[in-house]
Design a protein that fits this description.
With 308 residues, the chain is an alpha/beta fold. The protein is 39% helix and 15% strand. Strand 3, helix 3 and strand 4 form a beta-alpha-beta unit. Helix 1 runs parallel beside helix 11 and helix 7 packs parallel to helix 10. The chain is globular.
Length: 308
């Protein structure tokens, strides 16, 4: 399935270590960080995410030099949260935020993507807890994210963007709307991941249309529906589905990226759209060419100079 690539939109397009198969700070099978930076720049991107803390250099001066030497800039960092589990989860999240937001903000990044804990382990495939939250857990989830978002904004000038996720408690359209209802837009908005949202049948354009003020950040990816439907039918863990190619190279999957980019650009041209194709376990030689083709699909081969 294909879609028509858009003309260069006025949102800021970038990429992430995830598109190079990077899930962990240190894994000998992953692409070395120097190669990731080289290939991201060579593909045409100007913006990148930090990825798992510790994958890229954590010294601000060193990282700044490495990015500048390649014409790259930082859009955001990432932390992991589990606020539904209890009040003690704030300290866990804040300890990560001090490191990640502390580093990212020194390099000019103004966003922190928060990813919720999964109910099923992506490392062992073990079912860790119920797939759904109680009313009390929903309340904890909302309070925790607002507390974190307020602290991030006051301490680092960084905006929290919550990432719905497969195998997490916030994945469907209804769950995402409920999350928005229990959080304050001043402190908590969405990193709308087009692939993860489509994973459970979510309509990205509907979410953008109905909640335009809550779209603070984008992750651009597509799902392969054949692989997805097999995974859902067989209750396949997300990590296994990734290894089977559930997140596919644009424009081979869905949703179409052009209408999403255009819709968000009409709301706020300063939003980031970070290409983030889950590829953990891939060959180190696979990501670079895919990144280049994806960039060309979004912008066209002759429009790289107009990317911002």
């Amino acid at each position: 399935m294909t879609d028509t690539a858009p003309a260069p939109a006025s949102i800021r397009i970038g990429t992430a270590p995830d598109s190079w198969g990077v899930w962990f700070p240190d894994d000998p099978q992953q692409v070395p960080w120097q190669r990731f930076l080289d290939e991201a720049a060579a593909a045409g991107y100007e913006w990148i995410e930090l990825g798992p803390y510790g994958y890229l250099p954590t010294d601000p001066s060193e990282l700044s030099d490495e990015l500048a030497s390649r014409g790259l800039r930082l859009s955001a960092g990432t932390v992991f949260t589990g606020f539904h589990k209890g009040e003690d989860q704030f300290q866990r999240a804040w300890d990560q935020a001090v490191a990640v937001a502390g580093l990212a903000s020194k390099l000019g990044a103004e966003h922190l993507v928060t990813i919720p804990d999964l109910w099923r382990s992506d490392a062992t495939e073990e079912v860790l807890e119920s797939r759904t939250l109680t009313d009390e857990q929903w309340d904890r989830l909302g309070r925790g994210h607002d507390q974190l978002g307020k602290a991030l904004l006051e301490e680092y000038g960084v905006h929290q963007q919550f990432h719905t996720h497969a195998d997490s408690h916030v994945g469907t359209y209804g769950e995402t709307v409920r999350f928005l209802e229990v959080t304050n837009p001043e402190y908590t908005n969405l990193c709308l991941d087009t692939g993860h949202f489509a994973y459970y049948g979510g309509d990205n354009l509907r979410m953008i249309e109905e909640h335009p003020d809550r779209i603070g950040y984008l992750h651009l990816k597509q799902v392969d529906h054949d692989v997805l439907f097999q995974a859902l039918k067989n209750d396949t863990p997300f990590a296994t589905a990734v290894a089977r190619g559930v997140m596919t190279e644009p424009p081979l999957g869905e949703p179409a990226l052009a209408p999403i980019i255009e819709a968000v650009a009409a709301i706020n041209p300063d939003v980031f759209g970070i290409v983030e194709q889950d590829m953990y376990g891939c060959s180190v030689d696979a990501p670079g060419p895919i990144a280049t083709r994806t960039f060309q699909h979004i912008f066209g081969e002759t429009t790289a100079a107009r990317v911002h």
